[in-house]
Amino acid sequence: MDSIISTIANNIYLPNVEIEARLGSINLNKFDSSVDETIWNRILNVLGAWNGWEKVETTKKEIYINDSIKKNYRTVVNSCGDDIFEKKEKLVNNNYSCKNSPWDVRFSVSQEFKLSTKIVLNPDHPSTLTRIKTTKSFYHKFWRYDLSVITQKINNCEKKLYELEIELWNMKDAIKAQPIYLAKDLICKIQDIINIVEKTNKPVELIKN
What is the pLDDT of residues 111-133, one digit of tens each? Predict the structure, then answer.
């Protein structure tokens, strides 16, 4: 947990920062952020049945990425049909093996900046990655649970993914809290999700890879 505490402390004051944990699996030292559809639906139904959320919303966006044009730049079409041009810089990607759990965890920090100029794609190099993402979000205190269904196309190969992440969204209040509290709170949230999938009396133990 110490590495999560220090990562939060070192990055929480950055502008436009995103701090999140993804549940998935580590395979051959690579992190796969997709989860089983049946389990994903079970978690969605349990979260949806609780009436204590501060807010629940559904969003849809299309993301187009072409690193042959500009690395870390992407075009996002939101639910209203508006084009948004972004640059997303990944600052931290730490993988954790998760004992007493069906999943592993990736803890990430990134910065996301809106661009004032349009990203013009070269017609000779079409987008190499397209993600059509529909997300159901549940807000509670510092955190937001995002359950997403993603249709992903890479070089004309299409597949459907189910993803789950927990993001620190309420930065205004979160920066007033101690990093150790936020880290412990996040691990409790991960434990709650795991208990939906399989009941266990053993606490989650994260081991950094």
Answer: 988 887 666 655 555 557 888 99
For 29-56, what is each residue's pLDDT tens digit? 899 999 999 999 999 999 999 999 999 9
Work out the number of other CB atoms within 10 angstroms of the CB of residue 148.
Answer: 20
The fraction of the chain above a pLDDT of 70, given in percent, is: 90
Assign 43 to helix, strand or coil: helix
Q: If phi over 0 gives left and psi between -120 and 50 gives alpha, with beta otherwise, what is residue 100?
A: left
If you count them, how many residues does the chain have?
Answer: 209
Residue type at 160? Answer: K
Q: Which CATH architecture has domain 2-208?
A: Alpha-Beta Barrel (3.20)
Closest CA to 16 of 94, 82, 108, 114: 114
Write down the pTM of the prediction.
Answer: 0.89
Residues 6+ apart with CB under 8 A from 81: none
Q: In what helix (H) or strand (E) does residue 119 lie, and over which residues does it extend? A: none
The amino acid occupying position 52 is G
Q: How many other C-beta atoms are found inside a 10 Å radius of the C-beta of residue 35?
A: 21
Our CA angle for 107, 108, 111, nearest 5°, is 160
Mean pLDDT computed over every residue of the chain: 88
Inter-CA distances, 190 with 67, 119, 123, 161, 175, Å: 33, 37, 43, 20, 21
